[in-house]
Amino acid sequence: MFTFDAALSTAVQANDQPQPAPPQNATGPLSPELLSQVDRFWKAANYLSVGQIYLRDNALLREPLTVEQIKPRLLGHWGTSAGQNFIYAHLNRLIQQTRASIIYISGPGHGGPTLNACAYLEGCYTDVHPDITQDEAGMRLLFRSFSTPGGIPSHCGPHTPNSMHEGGELGYALVHAFGAAFDNPSLIVACVIGDGEAETCPLEGSWKGIEFLNPVRDGAVLPILHLNGYKISGPTVLARTPDEELRALFTGRGYEPYFVEGDDPALVHQSMADALNHCCAGIRAIQQAARSGHPGQQKPWPMLILRTPKGWSGPKEIDGVPVEGTFRAHQVPLAGVRENPEHLKMLEAWMHSYHPETLFDSDGHPAADITALVPEGDLRMSASPHVNGGRLLKTLDLPDFAHYALAVPAPGEVIAEAPRKLGEYLRDVLRQNTQNFRVFCPDETNSNRLNAVFEATDRCSMRPTVSIDDHISPDGRVMEVLSEHLCEGWLEGYILTGRHGMWTSYEAFAQVVDSMITQHAKWLEQCREFPWRRPIASLNVLLSSHAWRNDHNGFSHQAPGFVDNVLQRRSEIVRIYYPPDSNCLLNVFDHCLRSRNYINVVTCGKQPEFEWLTFEQALAHCSQGASVWDFATNDGGTEPDVVLACVGDVPTLEVCATSWLLQKHVPGIKLRVVNIVDLNALMSPDAHPHGMDNITFNQLFTRERPVIFAFHGYPHIIHSMVHGRSSEARFHVRGFQDYGTTTTPFDMVVLNKMSRFHLAIDALKYVPRLRSQVSDVIDFFQAKLHEHYVYIRQNFEDMPEIRNWHWTADFIQPDAPPQLAKGQPRAAAFTDA
């Protein structure tokens, strides 16, 4: 059954195209001329969107469409395209009339056709992809590149100049929009939210971003909720929600919603223009009042709710089945055009309904009235430097991190909470960079021992404060909200638009954003393919409340798997660090803040631990990534009997204690202790830029000697990294094995068989020359494990010899107990406070 615009179909067959009827005049802010301009830009973008999905040749339909000119695989998503093109055209009109700086964030999944088409019409696509020229040949190449091998994906990605985030996963448009608006006072972020995306948890939580948006110093976010009714096959929740309920919902969230709906283009154009004018005026009124010092009672922020049919302007029905306005328009409405001649005619009629011969001149250039709607220069949404954040990036003014060094007279003579010194450093980073650096944290800044930052700034909140609040103000630059999604997403939006920052979280719950980290990594990976994508600041993550010292919180807080996911990303993007003490943490984090285009994950506990290295030693150690710790080594520079290796603060403690135990109880044993601060250093240089070559690796670990390895995370990571090294079977790795509970700190390492006693027993088992002499020592260590088991159940704390242990080279008469860093109570050592 052939039902799509019979008159057009007849005209197509005759190859005699009628001129398009101009949009009917309707009451509203658009003059007839401007209404025509907006409508024709919209139609041109729609034509280009359909062409991307279907055509491999005959880009302007200058001859009858044939099967050979259709792509063999039809990929793409038409359902959202026309609505997004409609929004884009109207935002261009708004920019032209107000000179506002606006960027467009496409939230609906697979919105690539829209942003490709609009960037092409603006000329920016050609600017960054010179082969995709604004003529018939370039249009053909654009169509052929879309969703084809060696081409571009169907969603927004780095290849699209008006996209500033990876658009393949739903849920993160609005959180990125707020991140982009922070500290961008002149910017309006138009964020298009699909009604399917609106159902995701991250998006649902993102609406509260206005509670942290300060109109004095920040830009504005204009959410545009695009309700077209359906997901892939089912209706969406908000599309079936009546307007009065939507109004109540979003009014309660602090927004003033403006509604635009319909399917008559002329009427909807005028309604959309009117709503955008009100939204822009509302934003400016809020900002002007706040910036004049007389904010009064701040008005609600405007938002727009747009209801248009899914697949608007496409086939209304196919073979007697409704398509436009249904889920059937979601992807490829006419999927069988290569097999069904009638469907091929329908596609041709559909594309001719936009009248491409009037939208593009004889050479294929966009018509003059269409390009006249395009803003000038960087006001074009696809040319804005905010969507290519490296263009705006300013190097941080960083203090000398040596000034924050912790005095360490000798290894193990000081106990401190490592992040406290980092907090002092970050305090001064905030003081020296008041407009382009923020700290993002889910209500754990104090918990993670970064308290010193509140000497420089406050927690941000736009709500009224009360006398008992602690460091809360609208001007605060510490962004605390109890949502990993929002914290990490705000940081992404912030750095993607040219600023710097860090996110700190409990290790176990950082995994909530695994998929967000994955998408950001993919964005960075693809950006390397496009030199015009300028480098941005690295995404810096601090995990300072980790599995081994969450004994008081229990099993739910004991999970080190965040790094496992990060390590699956390409090696040129990820950097993983495990600083064992305060001075190493300072070294590592200063490096991270200076880096570009990486995801840096730094794991360092917040509990009182031994400090091992002076600042100078830490500097040398971190610059190498891994080194022998001479103070705990007694091999005299010769081949050791066994190598004790460690990654992480708690594994480092256990390895040093293992060396101490073995030297005390097995005289003559030769040990080497190797600490790794840069986990990627273990890898081959072929697998990671930080990897050690075999010569360096064997200098540290020898060629044949057994290596007893204590690792912060899951053991398989180390086994995978040393695969292919000499005698790789000699590496015996202990790490987290998913055993945990509410228990004592030492019991955590016992439960996972990474305690000093387990490591010492392993070491003795692999030293052949001592094996016959040490059975009684092994029995002693095993007895200690049993003694520990009984003691903690009777006394609810670790044995005194564990709680009070400290490093000393005198194995007969221990020397004085370690000093405590300033502000550290002695009783807090080795307890989780």
What descriptors fit this protein?
disordered N terminus, Rossmann fold, Phosphoketolase family protein, 3 domains, alpha/beta, THDP-binding, lyase, disordered C terminus, 5-stranded parallel beta sheet, Transketo_C/PFOR_II, 833 residues
Task: Report on this structure.
- With 833 residues, the protein is α/β, with parallel strands linked by helices.
- It folds into 3 domains: 6-21 and 31-387, Thiamin diphosphate (ThDP)-binding fold, Pyr/PP domains (Rossmann fold), CATH 3.40.50; 401-603, Rossmann fold, CATH 3.40.50; 627-798, 3-Layer(aba) Sandwich (Rossmann fold).
- Helix content is 36%, strand content 13%.
- It is built from 28 helices and 23 strands.
- Strand 4 (255-261), helix 10 and strand 5 (301-307) form a beta-alpha-beta unit.
- The protein is elongated.
- It holds the Pfam family XFP_N.
- It comes from Paracidobacterium acidisoli.
- This is Phosphoketolase family protein.
- InterPro entries: THDP-binding, Transketo_C/PFOR_II, Xul5P/Fru6P_PKetolase, Xul5P/Fru6P_PKetolase_C, Xul5P/Fru6P_PKetolase_CS, Xul5P/Fru6P_PKetolase_N, Xul5P/Fru6P_PKetolase_ThDP_BS.
- Keywords: Lyase, Thiamine pyrophosphate.
Give the SSE map.
Blueprint: H1 6-14, H2 32-54, H3 81-98, E1 101-106, H4 112-122, H5 124-128, H6 136-145, H7 173-181, E2 187-194, H8 201-206, E3 220-227, H9 243-252, E4 255-261, H10 265-291, E5 301-307, E6 317-318, E7 321-322, H11 341-352, H12 356-359, H13 368-371, E8 414-416, H14 419-432, E9 437-441, E10 459-460, E11 472-473, E12 478-480, H15 484-496, E13 500-506, H16 507-510, H17 514-527, E14 539-545, H18 562-566, E15 574-577, H19 582-594, E16 599-603, E17 609-611, H20 615-624, E18 626-628, E19 642-647, H21 649-665, E20 671-676, H22 694-701, E21 707-711, H23 715-722, E22 731-734, H24 745-751, H25 756-765, H26 768-771, H27 775-795, H28 800-803, E23 819-820
Parallel strand pairs: 1-2, 2-3, 3-5, 4-5, 8-23, 9-12, 9-13, 10-11, 13-14, 14-16, 15-16, 19-20, 19-21, 21-22
Antiparallel strand pairs: 6-7, 8-17, 18-20
Helix pairs in contact: 1-11, 2-3, 2-4, 2-6, 3-4, 3-10, 7-15, 14-19, 19-20, 21-25, 25-27
